[in-house]
Amino acid sequence: MTLSPDEIITVTLWGVPINATLLFTWIVMAVLTGASMLITRNLRPDVPPNRWRTALEVVVQGIQNQIAEIAQGPSRHLLSFVGTLFLFVAGSNLLLVIPGFRPPTSSLSTTTALALSVLVAVPLFGISRRGVGGYLQSYLRPSPVMLPFNIIAEASRGISLAIRLYGNIMSGAVIAAILLSVAPFFFPVVMDLLGLLTGMIQAYIFAILATVYISSATAPQTLSSPQKDAQ
Amino acid sequence: MRWRKPRRAGEIMSIDWITVAAQIANFLVLVWLLKRFLYRPILDGIDAREAEITERMTAATRAKDEAVAAEAAYQAKRAALASEQAQIAEAARHKAQQERDALLAEAHDRIDRERAAWQAHQDAEAQLFATKLQRAGGHALLEMTRKAVRDLAETSLEAQMAAHMGTKLAAMKDDLTHAAGEAHEAIITSHMSLPEAAQDAFRTELAQNFPQVAPRFETDLAQAPGVAVQLGGAQVVWTVDSYIEGLGAALNEHLSRSHDTRLGVA
Q1: Per its UniProt record, what InterPro entries does this chain match (chain B) (predicted)?
Q2: Is A135 helix (H, G, I), strand (E, B) or coil?
């Protein structure tokens, strides 16, 4: 049994082997982009919104409200990044119900790529909001002694993000595959339903954690005073 | 679809770094694509709708303010019109009162004038009636007197007048002689021509008292029934006027007494 879709070579383009992770990633990208283009192609202020556009507005505004709730401030600059994280992970996990589809998030390479993206995005957003000096000073707080621990904490965030998502999705797929060989009719269906639920939860958790990391890097640092501590 | 060669158990969690790099690129492309085709159109649409709603609410607020201002202006105009209406009504009432007073005064004046005219007409009618009554009464009285004298004394009224005048002339002989002066003619005027017997009686009476005076008989329709003797500057008159006046006074007294009696009964 193959555990990672990285090992499945689906096609070879110009001599380059394309594994299942990349192929299914493109499928997810095509579905998300195509649906977005279809729904927003006639979007004009003078045209009343239809039910698809309203549903999309609910999704986008829901993501934006969640980001605003966590970031406690302007959220639109985070929407593209965090929203895409959520939609990509959720879309990959939802397409699990299609027979033969291997979610890209069950590949450690994909989750690592997403975690690296978050790792890079955190300092980028922090620097863009607070400047280079302001961001780097956050590693020296509360004292310069904490610098190595802050660096380790930053790295461990990415690793935990990647492993958490990979472990949950991959384990669901593996369990479904095992149960399929043991009891081919009933249990795989139940496990796929459970996988849908855990997949959505994982997408939510991944996006929320990314938002928390980025917003902690972009939030202005406040110095605690004795009076404030007394309160 | 083909499979790579099986990995060892320790390679289950291996990372294909080429795939990682490709997935990072895929993710960045997806970020751009979704930003281009999802977030921006949706957020722009939401912003446009919010702007439109804000604009409509602003327009509605402005329209409401305008409506409130228009209502206030209308109320002020209505109050001004009510005040003007009250002033016009007061002026009309005052003018009507003045016209009413003027019409009443004119009506009273006209009534007074008509009443005065009617009173004058009544007085004239009464005067005319009194004159006619007096004249008719005089004739009737004269005729009755004449008849009574003829029936009782078997003589004429004119003879009795002559006898009466003779008596008066005798009584006033001295005064008349003095008043007559150098006059040689006595003018005896009557309403109608006197009978010959009466004329003879007058001649006899004058001859006894004033022998130098000759009588001359004349008639005057304007004179009341009776006879007047003018001798020089003196005149001795006997007519039925005093009797008729007495008759008129008696009639008036009787009529006024009857009128007072009717009013008392009423």
Answers
A1: ATP_synth_b/b'su_bac/chlpt (IPR002146), ATP_synthase_B_chain (IPR050059)
A2: helix
Which of chain B's residues have a Cβ under 8 Å away from the Cβ of A107? Answer: 19
Q: Per residue in A74-103, pLDDT tens?
A: 778 889 999 999 999 999 988 888 888 888
**Looking at chain A, which residue has its C-alpha nearest residue B40?**
A80
What is the rounded CA–CA span in Å between residue A84 and residue A90? 10
Q: CB–CB of A6 and B28 under 8 A? A: no
Q: Give the residue from A198, A229, A231, A13 showing the smallest Cα distance to A96.
A: A198
Is A135 domain-assigned? yes
Mean pLDDT of chain B: 84
**β-strand pairing of A16-19 with B226-231:** unpaired
Q: Looking at the predicted structure, is the pLDDT value of residue B7 above 60?
A: no
Helix (H, G, I), strand (E, B) or coil at A42: coil
Mean pLDDT of A26-49: 85
Distance CA A74, CA A82 (A): 14
Q: Is B29 on the interface with A (CB under 8 A)?
A: yes
Element containing residue B190 per DSSP (H, E)? strand B185-190
pLDDT at B80 > cutoff 90: yes
Tally of domains in chain A: 1
Preferred mutation among A3, A7, A18, A163 to probe B, highest tally of B CBs within 10 A:
A7
In this prediction the ipTM stands at 0.83
As a whole number of angstroms, the distance between CA B6 and CA B17 comes to: 18
Rounded CA-CA distance B210/B78 in Å is 110
Q: What percent of chain B has pLDDT over 90?
A: 29
> Exposure pattern of A43-80 as b/e (b: 16+ CB <10 Å)?
beeeeebeeebeebbebbeebbebbbebbeeebebbbb
The chain B residue lying nearest A47, using CA atoms, is B45
Residue-range definition of the domain harbouring residue A63: 18-219
Q: Which residues of B touch A62 (CB under 8 A)?
A: none
* A174-209 tens-digit pLDDT: 676 677 677 667 776 777 787 788 888 888 888 888
Q: Would residue A187 count as lying in a domain?
A: yes
CA distance B66 to chain A (A): 27
- What is the arithmetic mean of pLDDT over A100-117? 85
CA B182 to mean position of chain CA atoms: 69
